[in-house]
Amino acid sequence: MPRASTxxxxxxxxxxxxxNDDADDDNTGSISGGGGPNNIGGxxxxxxxxxxxxxxKTKGFTVESMPNYQNRIMHIVLFIQTDYPHLVPxxxxxLPDDVRKDPRYHFHKATHSIKWNNYTPAIMQSFMSGAxxxxxxxxxxxxxxDHLRKYHDAVLKCSExxxxxxxxxxxxxxxxxxxxxxxxxxxxxxxxxGKVAEQDADPICFSLFEQICIxxxxxxxxxxxxxxxxxxxxxxxxxNVDSISFSNFWSKNDTILFKYDTNKKDRAGEHTTEKHCYAxxxxxxxxxxxxxxxxxxxxxxxxxxxxxxxxxxAQGKDKSASNSFSKALHKLIKFATRSxxxxxxxxxxxxxxxxxxxxxxxxxxxxxxxxxxxxxxSILHRGEWSMGKVMDIYARFCSIGD
Length: 402
Description:
Layout: E1 38-40, E2 43-45, H1 49-59, H2 66-83, H3 88-91, E3 92-94, H4 97-100, E4 112-114, H5 121-131, E5 134-136, E6 141-142, H6 145-158, H7 172-192, H8 206-218, H9 222-234, H10 238-242, E7 249-252, E8 255-258, E9 275-277, H11 288-298, H12 300-305, H13 321-335, H14 339-345, H15 356-368, H16 376-382, H17 389-394
Antiparallel strand pairs: 1-2, 3-4, 5-6, 7-8, 8-9
């Protein structure tokens, strides 16, 4: 196995994956990029080990979906090992422990990776249309386009972090484009025939949201209650509610203002907007002020013992409050009286109930709950949705419209 090279890597230059150099070339670069140290007035600048590590940590910060992407790459590796074993030496390599654990490459739990310079669109298309096409082949049920497309996304992203400079062929992305277009059309037709395994969460309307709040309070599930009410009021993804800390909200007059540090499309947090939330004295079950007050009082001792600034302290094995909420919400529904009938009466199909339905239901309620709803730009800013590049520039956020 060739030694992991740093040349072409984002930690040492601005171009990580656009190199097709021989992986056996051990010529390494420095942190300054360009294959050599910076020259400052004739004096070479060589950062010390502590500074190199700090810079690598900063440059190594990447999307939160990398663990999922690497898991998908392992599916492709298994496909090659099973269906095309004669190609394994050319396409697959086992990760040495030091490389696998190196935080720069984001391998997480992956044990193998792919020699991207030998990976072709034909292999990927065989994987997507062949091995991964069927969720239930006997019943003729296929995976959704979005599910399959994420494997393509995983290849593009993970190939950028090859420790041996295995770069995808320069024509790979272009050759995949028409195939993905046709795959989308094929699965759209299959969906119209009921042959695609839909996993989308159905919108949770206000009356169902209110009923779930009542169930949560009556069963003592205060965590579910406050998380649910926050997600509805903020029109938020569960992951955004999960990440709320005490620095993300404050009081102003008769409102509580919330502002995320980051969101899904804005990892730098440059365009997040304030969200005004008010009390509802007429309906205590959906009142955000009451829900937060109860939750904070009940967990007062936990906050005193834990130095974390997060509103929701780590829960469960995965240390994710959003995942704990999802499990608790499904459990609450499962044991609630006549829950199946209630979900059916609110047009939530079996298998399509989930936390994301809260976000869908909130925007549906705001846009269709009256004849004269709020302006659409204000709603989209509230939910941190993009309006497109042009509209995002000209239809700017203003607090009076929130």
